[in-house]
UniProtKB/TrEMBL annotation:
It comes from Sodaliphilus pleomorphus. The keyword Cell cycle does not apply. The keyword DNA-binding applies. ATP binds at residues 619-626. One of its GO terms (molecular function) is damaged DNA binding. This is DNA mismatch repair protein MutS.
Length: 876
């Protein structure tokens, strides 16, 4: 049997590196290549489509190997990361030419899907978040998000539902979890797929997390961030910072703050609503989202902010109107609008550029870009400062073009600087005298060599004499064989070719040393000066980050104006009323996708807690019921992000929650359309109603039998009507039987989306009109859809017969009449009763500060409450 040979020293080094990050794919630099071995090579060759070979590693067996040229890293690395791989990059830490033994190597970066600093992996319009989720002992969850490419660090804590919603909105590329909570995470977020990475449990402890955060931010406590009393959030945030250490990301000065998501400031949109209203992503592959219609931003920061704004509409009337005022200003001042547009096109992604400064990854070319961006801010600042619009004036005041930095970059860096410092020609002339002198030597070398060539040719009488350079023995003189006899004796022969010989001379060697020495020194000086400049820019990180946020804001608001002009939107009135009044409203997305020549039919609508609280909207299939429901929510939502709306006019009394529930079979493709899920979600809506909720029910109850469906729909609408919140509700349904409700419930009104029947054919008028509708026209739609005529005919006959027998429609309607008059009324909650004892109990409970209650105090309180109910005092 062959004796196993020991691994080569290089393989030993490789294995040691691999051991440091066993779960990462290791790219191991060998010469001009990045190589992968063993299982890594198999995976890499599959993902990258590169050839899998084998090499002997010094042992008896050979190992799989796959590699690619080092300069192709930017092409291949994103593919690996996008495939969900964590990639450790092992580089040569010394010049292989100078290494005496094995080249020193080390892991210089661990790139994981959630921790990407720059390059082509990042989508310019999207954040790339890393998240951490912590489960505390009860059912409170802490969550933190970090985008290392922008420095944004956000945290919150709350119920599993709330954290689920945040995860859906922030769409992290990687989620850190505690090892012991793997199953809990999987169970809690079973609806979404996340790439998770498990960390040891001790990392998820408050003490470790707090220490880490305090050390990073160099503060004494976390009060300034508003998270001091949010242990779960603190723990998740600490875990995120821990992971940066683990992945060798230690230069993170651009993470300057930790912000708490103030959930109470934003409209609550459950994740079904976000998906159903297609706010940021369409449901169908070829669809369009609201975001894609209104995102006319010009800068990547603006695009990322717009994404956030759409998912987090505001609830504060003043804040909304401040945004609307700026949009209005840009509307009335085309010059200001044009100036912002022109300058923003020059700004680029300063947010990510400045992050690259912090992590030490900025290239000379990017530094020039940063300078251009800062210079582009100057005219924007002037325009804003000169405006009489308060928000703009304040933006103008805060914008800081950091002139010191831009002037220094302008002075020191070549405007055509290359992408890498090592390429040279980065630092301008006049910055460093020694550098200038060395460059003179280096630049004049060509002239010098030409002169030397001519001089030696004349001296020796060899006309074809040539001076050239190669890597083996540097500069040499080449003489063709015909003139060999004229070569002076002091020349030293170095190489014999077929037709010529090559020589070196003393003078040439001395000169060579000077030039090569100069080039090395030039490289060193350039690198040093560049490094010093980058270090100086580091001091301006917070200022540039503020600029970036302000520019993003301007970009979004200016984009709103352009969208409003292009799409004929109008300014909504947003106030504290409880009404929604929309005149000639349209669906912002559908209207953009209609075939040419077809106009969207606008509709008006009034909803109010006092009179028209619930609208039952009937109408045939395809009439436009869903479109109407959605456009109402979208108009309210657009108004609350500060955008003009697709309506002639709109008055929106602030909405604080938008709920959407679409009938089971409407989202069957999502694989979760069981009737059970529909009911669970409907229940969650009903349990969370508020006075300012806007509820959309689209064909609720259709996943079950007609009687069941109608009964459930009826009961739900009745509940919403009777609930003291009087939540505004649009209820689209095919059950025209529900029209009976309007007779007995004051705030329920019937509407239908009109169709006309001309010559036995349905014509969609798409107008919302008062009153219920008697037919479903389902059979007509089947006909339009191309159903064989015989089936359509037969269906018509069956329907007639059923109606004649009073089986579906009429009896049910008559029965429902009885239901309506026999309504028992809901016992909504015992707190609504006028019983003084219960009121006292309620007051006792409401007065409790649960956060500051010890278990013992809680027990005593419970005893007190019991005493109130039983009328006995303690100890009786
Ligand atoms: N106001 C309108 N103007 C022009 N086209 C419209 C309008 N409303 C709806 N449409 C078009 O009609 C199609 C059907 O509308 P929608 O899905 O709202 O109908 P529906 O009544 O909810 O139908 P179903 O009951 O089958 O779900 C939409 O995709 C849209 O293209």
């Amino acid at each position: 049997m062959a004796k196993e040979a020991a691994p080569t020293p290089m393989m030993k080094q490789y294995l040691a590196m691999k051991q440091k990050h066993p779960d990462a794919l290791l790219l191991y630099r060998v010469g001009d290549f990045y190589e992968t071995y063993g299982q890594d090579a198999i995976v890499a060759s599959e993902i990258l489509g590169i050839t899998l070979t084998r090499r002997s590693n010094g042992a008896a067996k050979s190992v799989e190997m796959a590699g690619f040229p080092h300069h192709a890293l930017d092409t291949y690395l994103p593919k690996l990361v996008r495939a969900g791989k964590r990639v450790a990059i092992c580089d040569q830490l010394e010049d292989p030419k100078l290494a005496k033994k094995l080249v020193k190597r080390g892991i210089t970066e661990l790139v994981t899907p959630g921790v990407v600093v720059g390059g082509t992996i990042l989508d310019r319009k999207e954040n790339n978040f890393l998240a951490a989720v912590h489960f505390d002992k009860k059912s409170l969850l802490g969550v933190a998000f970090l985008d290392i490419s922008t420095g944004e660090f956000i945290t919150s804590q709350g119920t599993p539902d709330y954290v689920d919603k945040l995860l859906v909105n922030f769409a992290p590329k990687e989620v850190l979890i505690e090892r012991s909570n793997r199953q809990r995470f999987a169970d809690t977020f079973s609806n979404s797929k996340y790439l998770t990475f498990e960390l040891d449990d001790w990392i998820f402890t408050e003490e470790a997390a707090r220490d880490r955060l305090l050390k990073h931010f160099e503060t004494r406590n976390l009060k300034g961030f508003g998270v001091d009393d949010m242990p779960a959030a603190v723990i998740a945030s600490g875990a995120v910072l821990h992971y940066l250490d683990l992945t060798q990301h230690t230069h993170i000065k651009h993470i300057t703050t930790l912000s708490r998501i103030e959930a109470e400031r934003y409209v609550r949109l459950d994740k079904f609503t976000v998906r159903n209203l297609e706010l940021v992503a369409p449901m169908a592959e070829d669809g369009m989202s609201l975001l894609s219609v209104i995102d006319k931003t010009l800068s990547p920061m603006g695009a990322r902010m717009m994404h956030r704004w759409v998912l987090f509409p505001l609830k504060d009337v003043k804040a909304i109107n401040r945004r609307l005022d700026v949009v209005d200003y840009f509307f009335k001042h085309p010059d200001a609008r044009d100036l912002v547009k022109e300058q923003l096109e020059l700004v680029g992604d300063i947010e990510r550029l400045v992050s690259k400064v912090a992590v030490g990854r900025i290239t000379p070319r990017e530094l020039v870009q940063l300078k251009c961006a800062l210079q582009a801010i100057e005219p924007v600042k002037r325009m804003c400062s000169a405006s009489d619009e308060p928000v703009l004036a304040s933006i103008g005041e805060q914008l800081n073009p950091c002139r010191g930095v831009s002037e220094r970059i302008e002075k020191e860096i070549n405007p055509d600087a290359p992408a890498q410092v090592s390429r040279g020609n980065v630092i301008n002339r006049g910055v460093d005298p020694q550098l200038d002198e060395l460059r003179d030597i280096s630049y004049s070398s060509k002239d010098y060599l030409m002169r030397l060539q001519q001089q030696e040719s004349e001296r020796t009488g060899i006309p074809s004499l040539k001076i050239a350079y190669n890597n083996v023995f540097g500069y040499y003189i080449e003489v063709r064989n015909t003139h060999r006899d004229k070569v002076p004796p002091e020349w030293v022969r170095k190489q014999t070719l077929v037709n010529a010989e090559r020589y070196i001379t003393q003078e040439l060697k001395e000169y060579e040393e000077k030039i090569l020495g100069a080039e090395e020194k030039i490289a060193l000086i350039e690198a040093r000066l560049f490094g010093e400049l980058v270090a100086a820019v580091t001091d301006y990180i917070p200022a540039i980050q503020t600029d970036s946020a302000l520019i993003a804001q301007l970009d979004c608001l200016c984009a709103f104006t352009r969208v409003a002009i292009d799409n004929k939107y109008n300014r909504p009135v947003v106030d504290d009323s409880l009404d929604i009044d929309i005149t000639a409203g349209r669906h912002p997305v559908i209207e953009r996708r209609l075939p040419p020549g077809e106009a969207y039919v606008p509709n008006s609508l009034h909803l109010s807690n006092d009179d028209q609280q619930v609208m039952i909207i009937t109408g045939p299939n395809m009439a436009g019921k869903s479109a109407l429901l959605r456009q109402t929510a979208l108009i309210a939502l657009m108004a609350q992000i500060g955008c003009y709306v697709p309506a002639e006019s709109a008055r929106i009394g602030i909405v604080d929650k938008i709920f959407t529930r679409v009938g089971a079979s409407d989202n069957i493709s999502l694989g979760e359309s069981t009737f059970m899920v529909e009911m669970t979600e409907a229940a969650s809506i009903l349990n969370n109603l508020s006075q300012r909720s806007l509820v959309l029910f689209d064909e609720l109850g259709r996943g079950t039998s007609t009687y069941d469906g109608i009964s459930i729909a009826w009961a739900i609408v009745e509940y919403i009507h009777e609930n003291p919140c009087h939540a505004k509700t649009l209820f689209a349904t095919h059950y025209h039987e529900l029209n009976e409700m309007a007779k007995s419930f004051r705030r329920i009104k019937n509407y239908n989306v009109a169709v006309k029947e001309i010559d036995g054919k349905v014509v969609f008028v798409r107008k919302l009109v008062k009153g219920g509708s008697a037919h479903s026209f389902g059979i007509h739609v089947a006909k339009i859809a191309g159903m064989p005529p015989s089936i359509v005919k037969r269906a018509g006959e069956v329907l007639k017969q059923l109606e004649a027998n009073n089986q579906v429609g009429k009896t049910l309607t008559r029965d429902l009449d009885d239901v309506a008059t026999s309504r028992s009324g809901y016992q909504l909650s015992f707190f609504q009763l006028d019983d003084p004892v219960l009121s006292q109990v309620r007051d006792e409970i409401l007065g409790l500060d649960i956060n500051n209650l010890t278990p013992m105090e809680a027990l005593n309180k419970l005893n007190d409450i019991k005493a109130i109910i039983t009328g006995k005092s303690q100890g009786d």
